[in-house]
Design brief:
The complex is a heterodimer of chains A (918) and B (325).
Chain A: H1 10-55, E1 63-70, E2 80-83, E3 89-93, E4 100-104, E5 109-114, E6 123-129, E7 132-137, E8 141-154, E9 165-169, E10 175-184, E11 188-189, E12 197-204, E13 210-216, E14 220-229, E15 238-247, E16 256-259, E17 265-269, E18 274-281, E19 284-292, E20 299-304, E21 310-315, E22 320-327, E23 337-345, E24 354-359, E25 365-370, E26 374-379, E27 384-390, E28 396-401, E29 407-412, E30 417-423, H2 431-435, E31 450-451, E32 462-463, H3 466-496, H4 500-513, H5 518-535, H6 537-560, H7 563-567, H8 571-600, H9 605-612, E33 615-617, H10 634-642, E34 645-648, E35 651-655, H11 672-676, H12 684-705, H13 707-716, H14 720-751, H15 769-793, H16 797-805, H17 810-821, H18 823-839, H19 842-847, H20 865-872, H21 881-914
Antiparallel strand pairs in A: 1-30, 2-3, 3-4, 4-5, 6-7, 7-8, 8-10, 8-11, 9-10, 12-13, 13-14, 14-15, 16-17, 17-18, 18-19, 20-21, 21-22, 22-23, 24-25, 25-26, 26-27, 28-29, 29-30, 31-32, 33-35, 34-35
Chain B: H1 2-13, H2 17-23, E1 44-49, H3 55-68, E2 72-77, H4 84-90, E3 95-98, H5 104-114, E4 119-133, E5 140-142, H6 143-150, H7 167-170, E6 175-179, H8 184-192, E7 204-206, H9 209-218, E8 222-227, E9 235-241, H10 252-257, E10 263-270, H11 281-290, H12 293-301, H13 309-318
Parallel strand pairs in B: 1-2, 5-9, 6-7, 6-8
Antiparallel strand pairs in B: 3-10, 4-8, 4-9, 4-10
Helix pairs in contact in B: 3-12, 4-5
The chains are: A alpha+beta (918), B alpha/beta (325).
């Protein structure tokens, strides 16, 4: 073509021009498609890298910056140190308190103090909580005070005012003046006990109520709480004071005394590691529990973490433990609570003990000062080591963390100190904190909890992603359980049984379902469907069983109609008839629902007796051995229920035979919601419902292998009418048989002490998974339907013809020939639907209560990764831990969807290659 | 913020309680607040991102502002108080309404970005009410019981555990409704009503203050918390007691006196350098309007309680806006 020697005639020339044009267009199109493909790939990879880029910093730990160390010129170690903001200054006070010195640590040295006269009486004990200080004295009085740093921004050159403090000139010339405001009240006499105040503790709870606890020389503990009411409209603050006291056990003087912030628990720590817990009972404190926290060594330091619920105990061998109070289901100590250890940090080295512990005022970071001068900052919840500082301060004895979590001050005896800045990084994050069970404050054992933020600093941030992952899986599993059978069988019917004319109408209508925006679906689910289901729960559940049975029954009845009449109807009419049967079944289910539920879930005599209290204790001989008088766990109670016995207040009881027609405590009829809540009733009706589908499948399989061959052989010789009757009869028998099998299975399971209310059923919530699963079907079914239908259509007609020609019916062809060949396409469709369900946000957001709970209960809510991101991203400050954790949720979602789609595509390719020859 | 609150209380302490009490008669706006008069030269658009509780308030203020200055436009986005600090830091909004004070971490982030802390303008007073269905027999509840029913400090409670004897309610579990974690109402209720404990995982999160009330209206066994301004005819707000003292209803008097345990200020956070105050006339005039008769009447109209003139004066001084009352 390009040979210059060949002379081309006009026609060839025009043809070659045309084909050049064609080639050019071809090449251009190929180029655009290739570029487009690469661009898509690049975009997806770009998203992946961006997500990873936001998430990766979470794994880094804190960074310690350069420190400033100041060698002392002699003198004593101060009794307490209070750090100012911005890591620039600190106040050192001694035991006399009234003298304090402000030290500017930027090599400014002493900046002066106040109150040069020292108190003659030296305080025996002191406690501080943020800005609040309490000091106990030898004469049995307590004085309360506060030490605050207040910051003011002033224009350049303005008057800095009086007061002890320091100024820093900022970049733009403005002056930042930090002044120390301290106040100290007069002595408060304690009413209980005698002698000096040996130990004192002072806590504030979130409502502003303060609690002061003091131990006097005669081992009496005095607890007083102060509630200050501050009128919002302005005016005098009113204070209300309440005081009580109690005696310690034994004669030993404890080494630590702490009170919880709500004033309900007092902890007394002894040197050998014994901890006594006293709990508040109305107005007095009662001794409840003693735990031994140490196996070796002695207690060195006792501190309370921010929030006032967890105590930290550091021992002389270098170990640090944290303990908190949690609910005790077994009520071993009488007040329903017990001490549980939440975290334990091991030793740092041989012979290294803990010298001082200090909590951060901003979050759950704690600073641990060891006897070799090393300071380790650890975040309690995530157990992450935030930063480790090797200080060279002589005789280090005091440590403090700056208020903004940006600096650490170590003070030694001899007047020396060291100031170290640090970057906290993302202290709340660790792999264990996000993906493992963590011992959170207030919980009896490690658990998965997600509660990412709140309105104040003192609450513990709980970032476990597991409830979210669980919620995502739960939503997807239930949605797929509903959507896959419906969509795949609809596609099968549409592809194999519908005429082309009807299919042309049906297929676009189903695809129209996909055009509904998910916000609208979510809104409809929350506002219309959920209240309806809550109102007519029985009808809804019964309807779910009646609908498929009704359609099958209708199909069998249809067989009885003479062949001639049957042939007159076309596929369009078939569809209408199926719709009519569906509607009829729905009506039957809706009408029969309350009746069936009323019979199945009716409370029996035992239930009525239990609800009204007409019960009497069972004689000891008749109580079975395995019930005994141990904890009466839920499992034991269920097994007892089978024998018509129950447990009330730890005593095994049965129905009082003497009381006839007990007043049933307001429970007259069966109430499905109350049954689900576990208020009454045995597990049998629930198991019948749960076992029905499995029983039906089981019965069908059994008859397929045993009876069916013989019946089919016998039927081959009969006429159509007889066949129709026999098959209908067989269907009815099988349906009844599956109900019977389900019933017996239910009885067996109930007798074993299992109850569906522990797993798949449970307390009913109006915003539940059932509603969401059905509505998500709307979103997912069109996708699966379209792709499956295309896959089925792609099966070559020659296969169908061959099968029909060999004598198979349409149904046999569809199920045994077409479906397996199109199997890979259908699998792919299901996976794509799965991917869509995993990422569905708006339906879940609006139709569930977004409760991050981990239970398979179909009647409870859940929270998914996608909904969590949607709800929480606006409130997460940019580039903070919470923000990055949300991106981590997105990354997890991305990986899940990517893996599912890729594996689906690989399977599809493999199977397609295998079927290529067909 | 705490030091400012302390300062304002010390200042308010100087005011005779009688004067305050007289001014606070009933729900009326403090007569000392001035009537707002429009000035010239104010135009522009105002964007507010923050509290859902104050959504209606901001919208009504915006409309009122537009009446004075037709050249202005107000956009209100109320997804929850926790969305205000990030928006103010990024400069996306001029006002950040919040129904709780900013926490230390948020103040720090703001300070890192701007060099000074944000200013909180106390624009209204709200009582956080505990709502139950209007047919529910319970009349009062204590903070301790609220902690038990809403938080992980106790297991799932029934209405009988709260002292209800009615047969229809005694054995039913309490169905709990609340807000999501972006909400200042959520954070404030956690701090005071739950005394710092965590919420149970079974508390159903509703997207807004009115959604909580709406959910309780349709759920006979429901309980929810929301601002007093969202009360409808289908619910009733029950009295709250604390620490063994008498239960107190949510009203203007109990909010002002501090007897109602869960009363709070409604804040309007602004980005204002403390050395210069607010310099641009758009925001200055908006705040002056908020602290005027018409602005506080809107607060009353929305169901909340107005601030007294003393608080208005303090906040205007902090922002270095001139006033003459």
């Amino acid at each position: 073509m390009n040979d210059p020697d060949v002379k081309l005639d006009a026609q060839t020339q025009s043809r070659s021009r045309a084909s050049r044009r064609l080639h050019a267009t071809d090449a251009a199109a190929e180029f655009v498609v290739t570029v487009g493909g690469f661009a898509v790939l690049a975009a997806v990879l770009g998203i992946c890298f961006y997500l990873a880029w936001v998430v990766v910093p979470l794994f880094s730990s804190g960074v310690a910056e350069e420190g400033v160390e100041f060698v002392g010129e002699g003198g004593e170690m101060p009794a307490a140190v209070y750090m100012g903001p911005y890591g620039e200054a600190a106040v050192f006070t001694d035991d006399g308190w009234l003298g304090g010195r402000v030290v500017g640590l930027l090599n400014q040295g002493d900046l002066g103090g106040w109150g040069t006269s020292h108190d003659d009486v030296v305080s025996e004990s002191s406690a501080r909580n943020g800005a609040l200080i309490a000091r106990g004295y030898g004469d049995g009085t307590v004085r309360l005070g506060s030490m605050k740093f207040s910051t003011k921004l002033l224009a350049a050159g303005s008057d800095v005012g009086d007061g002890v403090g320091y100024s820093t000139v900022l970049e733009d010339g403005r002056v930042r003046r930090v002044t120390v405001e301290e106040s100290f009240g007069g002595p408060l006499t304690l009413k209980g006990g005698e002698g000096a105040v040996v130990l004192v503790d002072y806590q504030v709870d979130t409502t502003g109520k303060t609690v002061l606890v003091a131990l006097r020389e005669d081992l009496t503990v005095v607890v007083s709480s102060v509630r200050t009411i501050r009128p919002l409209g302005g005016g005098a603050a009113k204070t209300r004071l309440k005081e009580t006291s109690f005696e310690l056990n034994g004669d030993e003087v404890p080494v630590g005394l702490k009170v919880s912030a709500d004033g309900g628990q007092v902890f007394v720590v002894y040197r050998d590691g014994g901890v006594d817990r006293f709990a508040k009972e109305k107005r007095d404190f009662v001794f409840r529990e003693r735990v031994e926290v140490l196996e070796a060594g002695e207690v060195a330091v006792v501190e309370m973490v921010l929030g006032g619920q967890t105590i930290l105990i550091g021992d002389t061998l270098g170990g640090v433990q944290s303990w908190h109070v949690a609910l005790d289901e077994q009520d071993r100590f009488g007040d329903g609570r017990f001490l549980v250890r939440s975290h334990k940090f091991g030793r740092m080295g041989e012979g290294v003990g803990v010298v001082e512990l200090t909590p951060s005022g901003r979050d759950r970071t704690v600073g641990i000062l060891y006897s070799d001068g090393v300071v380790v900052l650890r975040h309690l919840t995530s157990e992450k080591t935030v930063v480790r500082i090797d200080s060279d301060v002589e005789g280090a004895g005091l440590v403090a963390i700056g208020p903004k979590n940006d600096s650490v001050l170590v003070v030694g005896d001899g007047g020396g100190y060291g100031l170290y800045g640090y970057e906290a990084g993302y202290a709340e994050f660790s792999i264990k904190a996000l993906f493992g069970k963590v011992a959170y404050e207030g919980l009896p054992e490690p658990a998965y909890v997600y509660q990412s933020s709140s309105g104040d600093d003192s609450s513990e941030v709980k970032l476990s992603v597991m409830p979210l992952v669980f919620g995502t899986l739960k939503a997807t599993v239930f949605a797929m359980l509903f959507a896959i059978p419906v969509a795949v069988f609809a596609a099968l019917y549409s592809s194999e049984f519908l005429s082309k004319r009807v299919r042309k109408v049906v297929k676009p209508s189903v695809e129209l379902m996909a055009s509904l925006p998910s916000v609208v679906l979510g809104f409809v689910a929350a506002m219309v469907v959920a209240p309806y289901v809550a109102e007519y729960l029985g009808s809804f559940l019964v309807g779910m069983f009646v609908l498929p049975l009704g359609v099958l029954f209708g199909a069998h009845v249809w067989q009885l109609v003479p062949l001639a009449t049957r042939l007159r109807f076309k596929t369009g009419h078939h569809l209408l008839m199926v719709a009519g049967v569906l509607f009829l079944s729905g009506v039957v289910g809706w009408a029969a629902g309350p009746g069936i539920v009323g019979v199945g879930f009716a409370p029996d005599g035992f239930d009525r007796a239990m609800m009204s209290g007409a019960v009497v204790a069972v004689d000891a001989e008749r109580v079975p051995d395995w019930a005994g008088d141990a904890g009466h766990s839920t499992r034991t109670q269920r097994k007892l229920r089978v024998m018509d016995m129950g447990v009330v207040d730890g005593v095994v009881v049965e129905r009082d035979a003497g009381v006839v027609d007990a007043n049933d405590g307001g429970l007259v009829d069966a109430d499905l919601r109350r049954w689900l809540n576990g208020e009454y009733g045995s597990a049998t009706p629930g198991w019948v419902m749960a076992c029905m589908p499995l029983a039906a499948i089981g019965v069908w399989i059994v008859q397929a292998f045993t009876v069916r061959r013989r019946i089919d052989v016998w039927l081959a010789g009969q006429n159509t009418a007889t066949v129709g009757m026999v098959v209908l009869a067989k269907f009815v028998v099988l349906a009844v048989a599956s109900l019977v099998v389900a019933y017996f299975a239910a009885i067996a399971l109930t007798a074993a002490g299992l109850d569906p209310r522990d797993s798949v059923f449970g307390t009913f919530s109006p915003r539940n998974t059932l509603v969401v699963a059905v509505i998500m079907g709307f979103a997912v079914i069109p996708i699966i339907f379209t792709i499956s239908e295309d896959a089925l259509q792609a099966v070559p007609d020659s296969l169908r013809s061959a099968s029909l020609g060999a004598g198979a019916t349409k149904w046999q062809t569809a199920v045994r020939i077409v479906l397996p060949v199109a199997g890979s396409g259908i699998f792919s469709a299901c996976m794509i639907g799965f991917g869509r369900a995993v990422g569905e946000t708006m339906i879940v957001l609006m139709a569930t209560g977004n409760t991050p709970e981990m239970s398979w209960n179909i009647f409870s809510g859940f929270r998914t990764l996608a909904a969590n991101i949607a709800v929480e991203l606006p409130e997460a400050p940019k580039d903070e831990t919470h923000y990055r954790v949300l991106f981590l949720c997105g990354f997890v979602l991305f990986v899940m969807t990517f893996v599912i789609n890729t594996s689906a595509e690989v399977v599809r390719q493999v199977v397609r290659k295998r079927n290529a020859g067909l | 913020m705490k030091s400012r609150k302390l300062m304002s209380l010390v200042g308010a302490f100087a005011v005779l309680p009688l004067v305050v009490a007289g001014a606070m008669a009933g729900d009326g706006v403090d007569p000392e607040l001035p009537t707002y008069e429009a000035t010239s030269g104010v135009s522009g658009s105002i964007k507010s991102i923050g509290s859902d509780t104050m959504n209606n308030l901001m919208t009504l203020w915006g409309e009122d502002f537009k009446k004075f200055y037709p050249a202005t436009q107000t956009e209100v986005e109320g997804k929850g108080s926790s969305t205000a600090p990030p928006a103010l830091i990024e400069g996306q909004a001029q006002f950040g309404p919040m129904s709780r004070p900013m926490k230390g971490a948020e103040l720090d982030k703001f300070e890192e970005a701007n060099g000074y802390q944000p200013t909180a303008v106390r624009a209204g007073i709200d009582c956080l009410a505990v709502y139950v269905h209007k047919d529910c027999p319970i009349e009062e509840i204590s903070i301790e019981d609220l902690t038990r029913v809403y938080s992980v400090a106790d297991t799932d409670l029934t209405w009988g555990d709260l002292g209800v004897d009615d047969e229809d309610f005694k054995n039913r579990p309490v169905s709990l409704y609340g807000r999501n974690s972006a909400s200042g109402t959520y954070g404030y209720f956690k701090k005071i009503g739950l005394q710092g404990n965590d919420y149970k995982a079974t508390v159903k999160e509703q997207p807004g203050s009115s959604a909580v009330v709406q959910a309780v209206t349709t759920d006979l066994y429901g309980m929810g918390y929301s601002g007093i301004g969202y009360k409808t005819a289908g619910v009733k707000a029950i009295a709250v007691s604390y620490d063994g003292y008498e239960a107190v209803d949510a009203s203007a008097e109990t909010a002002y006196s501090g007897e109602y345990p869960i009363a709070r200020f409604l804040y309007l956070y602004v980005n204002a350098d403390p050395t210069t105050g607010i310099t641009d006339p758009l925001r200055a005039e908006f705040i002056k309007m908020v602290f005027s008769q018409s602005g506080q009447e809107i607060v009353v109209k929305d169901g909340y309680f107005p601030v007294p003139a003393s608080i208005a004066r303090e906040d205007l001084e902090l922002l270095k806006i001139g006033y003459d009352f």
